[in-house]
Batch of 4 targets.
Target 1
Amino acid sequence: TDLPRSPPAAAEPRHASPAAPRRLREKLRTAARMAGPPARTAPGSRQQVQGGESRAQPASASPPARETRAPFRFDYERFRRSLRHPVRGGRSGEDPETRARRMKIKEMMKFAWDNYKQYALGKNELRPLTKNGHIGNMFGGLRGATVIDALDTLYIMELEEEFQEAKQWVEKSFDLNVNGEASLFEVNIRYIGGLLATYYLTGEEVFKSKALELGEKLLPAFNTPTGIPRGSSLFSPCSGMSWSWGWASAGSSILAEFGTLHLEFLHLSELSGNPVFAEKASEPSLASVGNIRRVLSRVEKPQGLYPNFLSPVTGSWVQHHVSIGGLGDSFYEYLIKSWLMSDKKDSEAKKMYDDALEAIEKHLVKKSAGGLTYIAEWRGGILDHKMGHLACFSGGMIALGAQHSTGDRRQRHMELAAEITSTCHESYTRSDTKLGPEAFRFDAGSEATATRLSERYYILRPEVVESYMYLWRLTHQPKYRHWGWEVVQALEKHCRVEAGFSGIRDVYSTTPSHDNMQQSFFLAETLKYLYLLFCEDDVLSLEDWVFNTEAHPLPINHTDSKA
Ligand code: DMJ
């Protein structure tokens, strides 16, 4: 994301987007012909936007069409034949040390899952010190965030029994008829992403149907004058209302939130045959991710940069804070991954990514006195020489994007990716625990270290190992595996407790205190990326998959497939 978090214990068919891949657009047209008018969201939902800003029509304006034609059916077998690699890899020869390390990470996953299952099954996260569950308020009334986030990791690691336990919970206990305020962004990346990925990996219908049902419940958040989903993406799964987080910059929408829907929403349309998720449907008020792209590509960008806050009412920037870390991060990630997922057809996304990266290189990339490359934040033209842990995903993203550039640019971007990843590694090695702080600075004599007490914590975040995984796959330089193993050892030493893994409050203390929280992204991302770092490249091959921002793999749309 996007949202810098405090320590948790304390804390179309008629108007196809030119950006949508051609094959998908054709499918959507066919699907729309078969399905009749687009499915509607929760009854009455479009009238219920707080503040009376909606230009929406009553949901009853046009009666639902009677289903007289065959329902849309996604051809799963055909999709599987289009993959170039077996999803869990071919298991060719490997050295025993790599295998042993991979097995160790698998054991960590089993330990994290078993403890969650024993003490917190059905809650959102495990509290490993007090051996109970945590619910929090991010997902509204939804439960089981750790189950959904863990599913594909359990599957990939061949933890069959544990995967069946998780699947059973989804089948029997995952209740979508809940009331509460939930973050559109978090529900999308964790729940929708996790369910979609598990469906694509296994072909089990339950995951698809839950993802689609939940996707429908998210649509009311788009009901704003600009179609940019409401403020900070709060919604009520039952009543279909949406409104803004109180603290979020005068009701504005956050770049990393509304910019991190595209991958999942295209797949929701692909699997349902319902164009509403991917593209503007027949009513102007039913705007979706295609519209977000249009608003963003048109709005003027200061020095080519994208500020983090946009008004969903006027479509203008609310303040000029730019960051590749929290509040901005996954917007950039979803541009390059949208292009990759479209089999390189979504040229608008690629151009937006290239232009954004150029502006970032020009205005935000800096070198410290000690020679470390970092990406600073920007506040109305003034640089803040700080990098958040969240920003460390950018090494992997820039390396991934560099593969598709040529000549000088490719080399420059690979160097930049390697330098940023190395700086993030430094933020780990310069701490006593060998784990990195939430934010580190390059001012007042500091070099990749946290200077504020409030920035010293580590909550099991994945971004640094995520970059190690991409850099390993794209360069095969052994140092990335070494660095990943250092993290495994540090996690074992400082974060493993009797009943799971916990974040720590101070990475500079040799006896850190624990925050009593096993974040769901530890199972979705940190352990998955570590595992993949010690796998052959054909396990979840980058030729077949893109990872959403919660590390859930979504398939690339192979347009040349003869499947
Ligand atoms: C995860 O939920 C996702 O990686 C998100 O994009 C950023 N924050 C956390 C992990 O740090």
Target 2
Amino acid sequence: METVVSGIRPTGYLHLGNYFGAVRSFVKMQDAYNCLFFIADWHSLTTHPRPEQIRQSARNILTEYLACGIDPEKATIYIQSDVPEVLELYLYFNMNIYLGELERVTTFKEKVRKQPDNVNAGLLTYPTLMAADILLHRAQKVPVGKDQEPNMEMARRCARRFNNIYGVDFFTEPESYHFSEKAVKVPGLDGSGKMGKSEGNAIYLKDDEATIRKKVMKAVTDAGPTVPDSPKPEPIQNLFDMMQIVSTPDTWNHFNDLYNTCNIRYGDMKKQLAQDINIFCAPIRERILELQADTQTLDRIARQGAERARESARQTISEVRRIIGFRS
Ligand code: TRP
């Protein structure tokens, strides 16, 4: 069975965009592949050297993954810093990759622009740590967004370089697994772009009914169409897109007809949308709350995930040591 690895940095809570963009696909993938889903807490130090409550943030994502239906009996879910074996592979890759290659990675150049006062070595070697995350389990497939392509290119290079230097055929080059056809782009609530791109445009899986309603009612709209069948401006299209995701086709058609006949009242539409978002989120939210209260179960799942990941990691590290010439 092919192995899949995916990581997420614990920068906040999961929102509907994360759910429809990735997490929903993870739930399907766990039946078809040997999946390892981990929380990249070490990676977050590249941008947040003094993270607040890093352990808690990691556990929040773990909780939300479980609440969304990732099953710890089918997939391995773990926190990166619970599996220190990755650091050894990170070290070897850093010996094999050249400074110039890392400096040319476009995501690095972006980060340099974003945080010119903290261009740390970890930022530069972010791609080799990510390569180590993936190749630690000798994964073939990595579900990532298009923005991760430069990092994936580097992961393939690490695999190739290692094989070339030591004259082996040990690592396979991991491929990006884009579920973009199946992934639904969830728009944000502030009129443009996708959910999560900017502060305050996201609905989180943990949001309660009142919060959802407040956020949806504040979503950007306009004065409404005056000419029948006019095209929809982006903020309006976004509301309709959101409705397509969470509401029934009848509901969507109803408001679409009202729009096309210039009879739409956005207040009514938003009320309906908030209600349907809440219907969708409520069961996930309940499981989040249940799990949050059950710290023993969470501890056990985190421990079990780490153990399984370490087992897989140790095998790789032991072979890597043997290949390079260290005793394993
Ligand atoms: N760089 C990824 C991101 O932003 C997170 C990540 C770290 C990752 N290690 C990984 C993703 C390994 C897939 C595989 O969002």
Target 3
Amino acid sequence: MAVYGGIEAGGTKFVCAVASNKDDFRDEIRFPTTTPDETLSQAIDFFQKHHAREPLAAIGVACFGPVDPNPASPTFGYITTTPKPHWAHTDVVGRLKATLHLPVGFDTDVNGAALGEHRWGAAQGLDTFVYLTIGTGLGGGAMVNGRMLHGLMHAEMGHMRIPHDLTRDPYPGWCSYHGDCWEGLAAGPAIEGRWQTKGQNLPVDHPAWALEAHYLALGVANIIVTLSPQRIIMGGGVMDQQQIFPMLRQEVQRLLNGYVQKPEIMDAIDAYIVPPALGNRAGVLGAIALAQDAAR
Ligand code: ADP
Ligand code: ZN
């Protein structure tokens, strides 16, 4: 059975794993994201050790961004314009290829997680769906008609503009580009900025969660009418607050107001807006799925 390397390359931490599939993890390590030299060397060392014992068929990287995921582009496999210090214009795929001499699959962190959920999780059998993460940032990946959505660059759903109800919520938003875009109003740092404490410290009946459900529903309703997904998977630290889900589903139905007349939304929305089936393994399993595809 072929064995693959996967990297969930996050802005805070890297998770590297060796696995043949979802149920056969051989090894996993985590380390903080520091500089590209130090962090990529740690990943390369880990895979080289494994490769010497048991050859890897390919490596997959689900990467924080923005990135260049277009294989035809001269900067394919780069992290491009990230504000994260040291990481702008980093050739991630090039460095891995030069040292490991293996095929490397590469996509955004959220497209990777979406692919993992498609292969092994909550999106099996679908051809058009969206994976959203609501954590330190807010990002979305999509499969459309069976292919990961890239287009001009890749989707940046977290930066869509949503109505900001200033009478109810004077918090200005924290996005450095847009202030009160979706991420600026609804990712973890917005909750912390608005209520002066981290989301994990707020009680489950705090008004923060109804407001959060409202903001999340605005973006989700926009995604539903834009991409026509067959399901929406929502993960990330903020979605650990499970009380958000019922409020969010009801708010999506209220906002759509009967326009999308499909049973998935009208009658069975509990199975339409769902948490990731792979939990916090979605990212690294997505990287393994990218490696499987690169090996083909
Ligand atoms: P990252 O996005 O860095 O990979 P997370 O998905 O855990 O990691 O997101 C971290 C953000 O989510 C922080 O803003 C944190 O306050 C918030 N968060 C993490 N856990 C919870 C929780 N249980 N409830 C609410 N917010 C949380
Ligand atoms: Zn923004």
Target 4
Amino acid sequence: MVKRVTTLLLATAMAAILAGCGSGGATSSGSGGDDKITMGFAQVGAESGWRTANTKSVQESAKAAGVELKFSDAQQKQENQIKAIRSYIQQKVDVIAFSPVVESGWDTVLKEAKDAKIPVILTDRAVDSKDTSLYKTFLGSDFVEEGKKAGQWLVDQYKDTKDPVNIVELQGTTGSAPANDRKAGFGQVIAADPKFKIIASQTGDFTRAKGKEVMDAFLKANPKIDVLFAHNDDMGLGAIEAIEGAGKVPGKDIKIITIDAVHDGMQALADGKINYIVECSPLLGPQLMDLSKKVVKGEQVPARVVTEESAFTQEQAKQALPSRKY
Ligand code: AHR
């Protein structure tokens, strides 16, 4: 009897140990959990309301999905992101995710990750590497499309006039995918009518402070500005301060189009200070966790996952504001 009970206990213990090994070769990186994976996430920085919401989404989703998250903030510097990625490689994390500050200059470090057999997921922003085997998937918005939506709104607004429309543009971080693509998409649409003229275009680095500073300079140098196209809400909000400081009425004397639709931007839209916002969703966390688990298990994932987004007029902002999540 004693022998039978001992055998049963041993068999149960063996089964528990085997179950603890997990399946499909997913590594646990010493985090203790069976299917628990460790992700190294190299964030751009904390430059905007969008970025803060994105960081929150990644951190909360990691927690909910049981993913151990190692998080770093690159303070908008590529060299800091490269350092963070190298440190994740050294720590042998299961998967690396990052939102590249700029598009170029990633091949070497991505090759190092590939050689170490650590899958990489691009989130939010793309890289311009020719070798697409350096990363498993790219999850994020279609920035060209966002720029096109902004341009189309403008074309529709001014369809009944032949007068010149003077536009100033606040670009995002120089060399970043959203700055390059939004500029391109917007430019493609307004190029159809020569009355649209971009009379000044400069980077505001996606920040409120820079947006104000550059808009101040635009206002001093250009007596007639009809439209501001800002590549994100934060720069637009900074520009509103500059416009008010110059004694003009934002949304009326100067029409304003921005991208993101974060809470403060939507509030300014509802208040009539911004005229149109194209949405760019920062809530990438849940999809990122799903994709990570799949790539760590060696499952196939789509090469590109595009975020679903819309756009808002002033009236739509008033309705949407109470239920906005960011
Ligand atoms: O990459 C997404 C962009 O980066 C957002 O539009 C902007 O607000 C952010 O800083």
